[in-house]
Amino acid sequence: MLRKITLGVAAAALVCSPAVAGPKDFTAQGYALPADKPVTIVLMRPDMQVGELQAGGMVEPNADWTTAARGHLAKALETAHKSRGIEFKLLDEGQEANAQLVADYESLHRAVADAIVTYKYYGAKLPTKKDRFDWTLGPGAQKLGEASGANYALFFFGRDNFASAGRKAVQVAGFLGCLIGVCVITSGGQHVYYASLVELSTGNVVWFNVLRGSKGDVREAEGAQGMVDAIMASMPTRPGEGGAPVATAAKKR
After folding, report:
1. Three-state DSSP class for 164?
2. 8 Å CB contact between 219 and 68
3. Beta bridge partners of 52
4. pLDDT tens-digit profile of 197-226?
5. How close are the terminal C-alpha atoms of the chain, in Å?
6. Strands 190-199, 87-90: parallel, antiparallel or unpaired by DSSP?
7. Calpha distance 222→38 (Å, rounded)
8. Residue 10: CB partners within 8 Å, gap ≥ 6?
């Protein structure tokens, strides 16, 4: 429960922070994909939850929306990899050992992504990581490589909340209040996505991107594709390719 609360606070803080609107990526300093061997990526199942934002600000999860979004995002990730010529693998979660492995690393990725968002995008900077991008899932990530035959893994996390009718009514009331000098601005839907590329031989996160805001309705195939295309646009994919250094990437924004 504490883990969920912490992650919710980090995601909520990200939603409310004006400094991170749109995508913002980091690449491990000096890192480039190996030029002397193929790059093969295992696509982890999207860690996705979709809900409805109630009038009072609470989120009510919607199982049907979540199932639809997971399916559309998984398909969109496959399409994006194929269109960019990336060799990718899928883990057979029908095998009990693989299912447990995926569940374990999905939870671990949430924890690491939470720390990245908290200390790299929002709040106080950690003294030892202030000018560096240095995060890892640990060497145990090699198990994902052994199970899939890939040398990298792509993790995808999303929390997408759509405004309910009651929430929209509160928004309208707030705007109308501005006409008589009692202005209360209430936010509408909330959309936060993270994506991580992990080197499986070390477990290091070598590329990380956050997308705040909507690029489409992920409950529909077209919206999910728009979201995936936006967050993956800066991900290095070819042998020898790297990202912008942290200082440069931060300076551009």
Report:
1. coil
2. yes
3. 60, 162
4. 999 999 999 999 998 887 889 999 999 999
5. 35
6. unpaired
7. 30
8. 114, 117, 118, 122
| Residue at token pair 């000018």 | 131
SS3 of residue 93 by DSSP: coil
pTM, two decimal places: 0.79
Find all residues with CB under 8 Å of 114, minimum gap 6, and list them.
Answer: 6, 7, 10
- Please, are residues 137 and 109 in contact by the beta-carbon 8 Å criterion? yes
Q: For residue 176, what pLDDT is reported?
A: 66
Contacts of 8 (CB under 8 A, 6+ apart): none
Q: Which residues of the chain have pLDDT under 70?
A: 1-23, 123, 167, 170-189, 243-253
202-239 burial, b if ≥16 CB within 10 A, otherwise e? ebbbbbbbbbbbbbbbbbebebbbbbbbbbbebbbbee
The pLDDT value recorded for residue 163 is 74
- In DSSP terms, 159 is beta-bridged to 49, 192
pLDDT at residue 177, as a whole number: 66
The token pair that represents 109 in the structure block: 């990725």
pLDDT at 206: 93
Phi and psi torsions of 116, nearest 5°: -60, -45
DSSP class of 136: B
Residue 53, sorted as left (phi over 0), alpha (psi -120 to 50) or beta, turns out to be: beta
